[in-house]
Amino acid sequence: MNNLRKSNIRKLPKGTFDTLIIGGGINGAVAAAALAAKGVKVALIDKGDFAGFTSSNSSNLAWGGIKYLESYEYGLVNKLCKSRNHLMRSYPSTVKEIRFLTSIQKGFRFPPAFIYMGTLLYWFMGRLFTRMPNYLTGGKIKSLEKVINTQNVSGGFEYSDAYLQDNDARFVFNFIRSSMSYGCIAANYVESLGSTRKDDVWVTKAKDGLTGEEFEISSKVLINAAGPFVDPLNELNEEKTDHHHVFSKGIHLIVDRVTDSNKVLTFFADDGRLFFVIPMGPKTCIGTTDTQVDNPYAHVTEADRQFVLDNVNKLLALDKPLTKEDVIAERCGVRPLAIKGTGGKADWVQLSRKHAIDQNAQHKYMSIFGGKLTDCINVGDEVAGIVKEFGIDLPYADFKWYGEPDDSVRDEFFHRAKLMNFDALTPATSSEPLTSRFWRRYGRNAINMLEAIRENPEKAELLIENSEYLRVEIEHAAQREMVTKLEDFLRRRSKISLVVRQEDILAAPGLREACEILFGDEAEAKLQEYITSVGKDVSPREDVVA
């Protein structure tokens, strides 16, 4: 049923694009958005779904890198703080300030007062953009947050950073959607089988992962933004680079909310690494681990799961210890860490998440290594600058390609929403008013969605309990968000499968209707595909499939 994807795949073999971007994670997404908005003819493919790998398994934090103060990377911290502030100004409804409440255990390698001085330095390096840090005694910590176990706490502090109020994958997809609005031809589930250079043009053999159809895409410039798969793609394309990746695996467990305070609780886990208890709407996200792995295909092991559970039970004073039965969902991904040279023997724990872009100007080829959400606007601008140096014209080089719509559009949406008393339709299970959620997710498109609800109030119904997604949102996803598999919608365009148990999703009476909206005649096949993919040996209730 996915007409947008089918239409774009038909366009990919036609003509010669200025640039082809391979990879639809955060680096590829911002590269596409920046280039397309500046008038470049752009194509983008991803062998899976957009944001389908590392970019959908983050901690949902957009932070200035306070931990890099310990390794004296002041230049990086300064740059990341500046990037964080810019991101917060550009996306005020999405990237928001949040307080981090940090507890320091007795016997830790640094006393609390010393680390607190570091938070003051961090605040100054952040240009005083956020609220000032506060030093806290153990007793004060307990009074502010009763859920923290302060028996072995010597002190702590509060400081501010930023977080994504919605899903990281949703944030990434909005750049993809923006790029398509500016003319980018993007398609998910299209794999690169390798690229060769012919007569100053890159010819990429591509394969539709759904139909098996193979075709060629021609482009003047090739951008390898394949995230953890940058190295094998470069090998396939016979391109040498200065950098390569090593991988660190991180996991998070999502459980029912353990505290009502909207703060990130920060600790140092048993291995000395940072450990977070992060608000996620009606749920809590706990992690992360930091384990070196040899390849990008990581999974949650029993040891990973137990490490997170042991630490959270030790650090929090819960009425009942958390067990794996309390886990609603799990996130697991690898951090691709950029390392220069051919060896992999560097102290990988000390490697930062800074990005690096290697370029071959003669071949008009670039590879993007590392990176994180915080620095994404810089990556987009940097890629656009390199493409211009490669000789590609940027007709609208100064066009601002990022950020929320201006205040006049925002005021129009909120005024219309107020006139129709839109927030009164907010489901009881929602973690925020509908107006806030719609504006953050859809921007100017939210105005049209309001009109659809005004014309047909049934479009404001909640199809899947606790999902925070109305019927009109699912219709919008079907038309404009290239949802190719049910998992794309449940896990990445939304965060339903992160906050609703799998069995509850499958048992939801509205799941069948959601599939019909998304996939039309293919609804049954897509539902069964999803059931198989999540490994549930269950038969959905009769009202789900009937």
From TrEMBL:
The keyword Transmembrane helix applies. Gene3D superfamilies: Alpha-glycerophosphate oxidase, cap domain (1.10.8.870), D-Amino Acid Oxidase, subunit A, domain 2 (3.30.9.10), FAD/NAD(P)-binding domain (3.50.50.60). Coiled coil: none annotated. Keywords: FAD, Flavoprotein, Glycerol metabolism, Membrane, Oxidoreductase, Transmembrane, Transmembrane helix. GO terms for molecular function: glycerol-3-phosphate dehydrogenase (quinone) activity. Its cofactor is FAD. InterPro entries: DAO_C, DAO_C_sf, FAD-dep_OxRdtase, FAD/NAD-bd_sf, G3P_DH_FAD-dep. Its EC number is 1.1.5.3. Belongs to the FAD-dependent glycerol-3-phosphate dehydrogenase family. This is Glycerol-3-phosphate dehydrogenase.
